[in-house]
Design brief:
With 360 residues, this protein is of the alpha/beta class. It is built from 15 helices and 14 strands.
Length: 360
């Protein structure tokens, strides 16, 4: 199925399109009217197009999209719609890449079909990207239903500009979350395309890390510009924790641990030990101690890596955090200790991104 406008028309329009809204679609008919109305209501005065790729929807998504073509056209927003009717969807990465390949904008605004952009989104992120040509630009969000994923939403919205970079190893995923991405076409092409591995592949995190590897920046418009919907059918639920864990460990070793001579793992419990076991032998040998606040763990005195191939089996001491020395990898979940973790870190007068990084 190819519902694109004629090639001649696209070539004529190509030079004047400032922003392409990139939208993969899969069985999104119940969300699309609200999503498209929000695109229609943007206060951006430059040229826009909506580039959609339908990933084998079995509902009325295409019908709903086509019903909006005339309304969007009257507003000056052209629609590019293509897709396939295979028995199975090919995944979000595949759909995004196809939507991008048919688009003509100088800048990309990524939009999930189940989310709703506020009227200022395109304008404010466009203004930001003009100053950050090699960055992924995000924004604050409103979670719907209200109160769902409360800690995650608070984390998204409260990160400082510095923490967009320092907290890229945390389990929450990209610090600039995919549904808010805005970037230049030139930078996207420099980084490369999304992974097309399909269901269970975190294509956003893979691209995010690759962008950082190539020197890309991160920035955020500090206003709520997107209603970010939570529901059980969201594709993010198909990605396993173990897949994300491995990607994070590998990136941490590459970007941080390779530069440190030694370090302390803050948490002698399950998560800290799991990190230790996940490290390469070289980086395990750099771990000088675990630290904790739990007296039972501290009194035990050490952790033995029973499954290690080395003989004798590695033993790592466990000390109170006040007796430990930087740098640290923090394996305690943020916003889960009634502020005690944050107070303890503050008491040591440490600098995030220099003396410690959060991993959980």
């Amino acid at each position: 199925m190819d519902l694109n406008p004629p090639k001649q028309q696209l070539e004529a329009d190509e030079s004047i399109v400032e922003v392409s809204i990139i939208m993969p679609v899969y069985n999104a008919s119940c969300w699309l009217d609200e999503c498209l109305q929000a695109i229609l209501s943007q206060d951006f005065t430059g040229s826009m197009e909506l580039s959609v790729f339908d990933d084998a929807s079995t509902d009325e998504s295409i019908k709903v999209l086509e019903a909006w073509r005339e309304k969007l056209g009257a507003r000056g927003i052209s629609m590019l719609i293509s897709g396939h009717k295979s028995a199975q969807p090919r995944g979000v990465g595949y759909a995004k890449n196809r939507a991008i390949s048919q688009s003509h904008g100088k800048y990309f605004c990524f939009q999930d079909a189940d989310d709703v952009m506020l009227p200022q989104r395109v304008r404010l992120q466009y203004e930001a990207v003009l100053c950050h040509q090699t960055s992924l630009i995000g924004c604050k969000v409103q979670r719907l239903p209200e109160g769902s994923t409360e800690r995650y939403t608070r984390w998204i919205n409260n990160l400082t500009q510095e923490q967009l970079t320092t907290q890229v190893f945390t389990s929450h995923g990209p610090t600039v979350i995919m549904p808010t991405w805005f970037c230049s076409k030139k930078w996207f092409q420099e980084v490369g395309s999304f992974d097309e591995g399909g269901k269970g592949v975190p294509e956003d995190l893979l691209f995010f890390y690759q962008s950082l590897r190539q020197g890309g920046g991160l920035a955020r418009v500090d206003r709520c510009l997107l209603v970010y919907r939570y529901h059980e059918e969201a594709t993010t639920h198909s990605v396993t924790e173990e897949t994300i864990w491995k990607l994070r460990v590998d990136f941490l070793q590459e970007r941080v641990l390779s530069c440190w001579e030694n370090f302390t793992i803050w948490n002698a419990g399950k998560q800290g030990r799991k990190l230790y076991r996940s490290l390469s032998r070289t980086n395990r040998n750099k771990v000088k101690a675990f630290c904790d606040v739990d007296e039972n763990k501290i009194q035990k005195g050490f952790y033995t890596y029973e499954d290690a191939k080395e003989r004798p089996k590695p033993k790592v001491s466990i000390v109170h955090y006040k007796d430990a020395s930087a740098p640290f990898i923090i394996c305690v979940k943020l916003d889960m200790t009634a502020g005690s973790l944050e107070e303890n870190l503050c008491s040591l007068q440490l600098k995030e991104g220099v003396d410690y990084y959060h991993f959980n």
